[in-house]
Each structure stands twice: as structure tokens, then as C-alpha cells.
Amino acid sequence: MASYSGDKDAYLKRLRRIEGQIRGLQRMVEEDKYCIDILTQVSAATKALQSFSLELLDEHLSTCVVDAARTGGREAEVKVREASDAIARLVKS
Description:
The structure is a single chain. By secondary structure, the protein is an all-alpha fold. It has three helices and no strands.
């Protein structure tokens, strides 16, 4: 079971809001809105996705990684490596 399952509805609600922001960007381009206005909205959508991903990462660290660390062994190594790789991808984006 995914660590975020208890908050699944909240996560989906946030993603739907972000999806709405992206649809708004599409409309802005279709309507030939001013570039700076579009870029402002791109920044807002980017920040919303970053915030979402950081919250999901925090959830993963506090549940999956902590549980694996308690168990120890290979599973702990795998979970820490996965988390480290995810952090590296987020930092690069």
C-alpha cells in the first residue's frame, strides 16, 4: 500500500487544481495572452508541482524509508537510494 493512501483524496484534489492551472495556460496561449502573464502562471504551476512533490517526498521519507530503516538490511539500502535519487531529480528540475 502506498504511504500516501490516507491522504489520497487531498493529493488528488491538489493535482486536479494543478491540472486546472495547466488548462488555464493552454487557454492563455490559445487566446494569445501577453507572454509575461503566461510566464507568471507557468511559475505558479511549477511552484504548485514542486510543493506537491516535496510533500509526497516527505510522506515517503517518514513512512516507507523509516519503516525500511527499522527493518534494516537490503530493503533499507534500496529505500534510501530511491529517496536520494528522487531528491536529486527534484533538485535538478
